Structures are given as C-alpha cells and as structure tokens.
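Q: How do we represent a protein-ligand complex in a form that can be generated token by token?
A: Start from the inputs.
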Amino acid sequence: MSTASESSAPDTVRSTPRSPGHIRLTSHSAGFGAPQISWGAATAAERGPVIATTTDRAHRNVIGTHSGSYSVYRALAVAAGALSRDHRADLTNTSPTDVIGPHRQWADPNAIVSLDPWGATVAESFPELLASGYDIRPTIAVTKAHVILPEIAEAISRGRLTPDGEFLLSTGAALVTKAAVEPVWWLPGVAARFGCSETDLRRTLFEETGGMYPELVTRSDLEVFLPPIGGQTIYIFGDPQDLSNPAVELTARVHDECNGSDVFGSDICTCRPYLTHAIEECIQGAQRGGVGLVAYSRKEGRALGEVTKFLVYNARKRQVGGDTADQYFARTECVAGVQDMRFQELMPDVLHWLGITRIHRLVSMSNMKYDAITGSGIEVGERVDIPDELVPEDARVEIDAKMAAGYFTSGAVPTTDDLRQVKGRGLSG
Ligand SMILES: [Zn+2]
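Then emit the structure tokens for the protein with zinc ion bound:
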C-alpha cells in the first residue's frame, strides 16, 4: 500500500534542482555570439570552431551535440543527477600524441564532409575563444597503445611474423597510434555525396529520427550536424606521418564493425579473421619500411544493427533448403528492405583527413569500399583477399555470395550453380 504522502503527490512532473525548469526549444534563434563555420576554409581560424555545447545555447553553431550515440547516456547522467549539466571538460594533457595534418584535403570542402579535420586540435586552434569562455570540445582524440591479439601471437609462433622490438615486441604486442573520430556532418556536402537535395536530407533526417532535431528543418543557417551515430577508430602501424607520403608503401583495411565475429569469434562470417589478417599485413608492411592502417567504422551488421542481423541469421538457416549462398542477399533484403545500409560514400573522409593519396595494398575484397575509395580520388594498387584457410566453415555462404556479387577475388568467381551447393550449418548444429 502506498503511504498518504505518495498518494497525494500531484500528478505533474516537478522541476528538480538539476533540471533547467523550462524546456529550451532548439527551434528558437540562437541569438548572438555563435562564431561562423566556413566549411573547407584553409585554416582553423578561418573555418571557425564547431561548438556543440548544451550549456550556453547562444554559442552553439551546429545541430546536435558531442559523442554521437553516447550523447543520450550523457543526458541520462544529467537526468540521474550524476553529472552537472554545466560540467566543462578539463583538457589538461589530453592533446594528441601525434600531429596529423593539416593536409591539403582539409581545405577542400568536398573532400571531407563527415568529420571535423580540426577536431583534434581545438586547444591549439582556438585559444582565444576558449579563454573567453566558449565551450569548444575535441571531436577527435589521438593516442598510443600496444595491441595484443592471439592471431598475432600465432603468426609469430608459426614464423610468419618476427618481433623487431620497434613495431612488434617479443611479447607479441604491436605498437600503434590510434585515433577516435566522432561524426561531424556538413549537410550540404553529405547531401551532394548521396545525390539528394540538402532540404530533402534535412527533412528525412528529422522525420526518420522521430523529430529528434527540429533545427534540421527550422535552422537552415546551421549547416553542420553532429548525428547520434557511432564514429570511427583508426589504428596506425608505423609512423603516422608516412600515411600522406605516396612514396611510402601503405597497407590499409577499412573494416565495418561486426561485434559477433570481431569480439566474440562467431564463425558465420569472415570479419575477425580478415581483420586480424589485415593487422598481420600492416605489421609486415611497417617492418618493410612502410606504414599500416586499419580504419574501423561503427556500422554494425551492414549498419542495419544487430537485431536485424540476428533475425536474418534465423531466416537464412530456417528457409527451405537451408542456408545457401544463392539466397544470402535475398534473406537480408526480406528482413531489412535493403541488402546493405553502410553506404560507403562517407567512409573515405577519414583517409583524406590522414592525407592519404595512395593505398599500395588494400586488404579488402569489397567492391563498394574499393569504388568509394578510388571514386574519391585515392589510388589503389594491389588488392589483398582473405586467405582461403582463414575462412571459417560456416562463413563460406557469406564469402562466396559476396564474390559472386562482385567482391574482388584472386581466385575463381563462384557460379550460380556453385552458390546453390554452398551450404551453412543449421540452427541446431
Ligand atoms: Zn561479420
């Protein structure tokens, strides 16, 4: 039974000391005080800072806020009273471990449209604005790490890799420089990439997020949007400065997130084996005097999400005739309405941020990734497919279907008849 005081509580939401007491509509004009953004300007000062703070609305010059999808957790932390809404990041000692750029691509408004090239260096780029009270936060962080993978230890024990004490230690640890990159979209440029009008893009983003960002339709003067999606992480093997030098051999893989395989070793696809093979290739490349790069995008399950992905697994394995390669794409399309939502059009931006003009060895079989990279003006030399012995038994369905659909292979392309024969495990197996 409820107590008298609880049952007599008014049926309204009461303002708590940590809430602002009134809703601040984002559709209202921000007023004065927001610096302009000139996307693609040659210097940070001319381009202007990206200000996505929620504390001083008058300073905001973008739609959305920091941290991609984690912005919702930040809101939860504020709602729960765990985080002060006025908290300012103390950025002491957080500056990048390695200098990236500036590269000439940073001054081309069409080369980079989905990240802020100046996002790692806000402290160096905008000291006066920061000193005068503008809450400008990094959207890119660059650090160093050792990565230790059982596949690399195995490659050492089998003699494919040899520790050199510089790129690969005798402990099996590979030395990397890594960067985390949040999405920052310049809407006119994103619309151009997808061949739609900016108005249609804004309206569709507004409607398909359930009306989450009214400014998309009310504030056409704000051209930059920080979308609530995952970003990218890059891992560099060797000297990051070498990435922009076309004379230095670059081994690179652009990899889309697959939690089931990448982290948990699920054997229905080739994601982790291909990723660890790429890391092995990157280490070998660095040891030859080159540089290696893995760019990892948070686009789980072809950007359809894991729920859709697991539904598709069941549909594949329960269909009449079992899980065959000839039905691989059809089952995804039945559940999701499309075969793929990764749309690689924005993916090359991170390569242009790094100043890359040539990839000597692209460790990917995807024609969509290859087309996006070369279409953005980056030369690609050799393409490196996954060695056959690294393809798990149950993943033959996926890789054969992809090769038949146009993925690069140095071997034979499976025929329609072959695809009918390639069969995966059942659900009870
Ligand atoms: Zn996978």
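Residues 1-20, 24-31 have pLDDT under 50 and may be disordered. Residues 258, 261, 269, 271 surround zinc ion (CB under 6 Å).
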